[in-house]
Amino acid sequence: MSTEIxxxxxxxxxxxxxxxxxxxxxxxxxxxxxxxxREAEKRQAPLCAYALLRLAIWERxxxxxxxxxxxxxLGKPYFPEWPGVHFSISHTAAAxxxxxxxxxxGVDIERIRPVSRRxxxxxxxxxxxxxxxxxxxxxxxxxxxxxxxxxxxxEPPLEDGMHYHEICTASGCAAGAATWESVPxxxxxxxxxxxxxxxxxx
Length: 202
Hints:
Distance between the termini: 21 Å
Number of domains: 1
Order of helices and strands: EHHHEEEEEHHHEEEH
Largest sheet: 4 strands, mixed
Number of helices: 7
Structural class: alpha+beta
CATH architecture: Alpha-Beta Complex
Strand order of the largest sheet: 4-5-1-9
């Protein structure tokens, strides 16, 4: 199983009916957590991220429902019943992203937005450079399973055999994937309408 990436861009707000469709397939306890989020807009990207994961698992493994998801002591999610299927999930204000592989994988996507001058001094020199560095760091620690604390201490080193791939998305976002393959992963891009249609017909 080579590494593949699924991306959906949120070009508009979800309708209440669409939110209901996505909530129905979101695994517990993430569904309960999202229901406690007061601002409806903040639910949309994580809902789409879990919808992408469902679609990825269906397309790659033929599973109609997500397997049980657990977390390591450092917070990395995994499928206890499917140890040969590794995944990584990320979402930002305008997009969601999922990586799937037979070996550990890490993905991250961030909307480029204003940041403090202090952060620009540390990572900068521009918001675009800051977020390209940020997604690289987060993808690397997700792949290695070190935990987010490791990326706050500086640039995590590439482990022997690990590769980082910058992923092209829409303008206004930075994205990347850390894998154990030198070949860049295949990227599947979806509109919101296409994602919803796929979920309703599977």
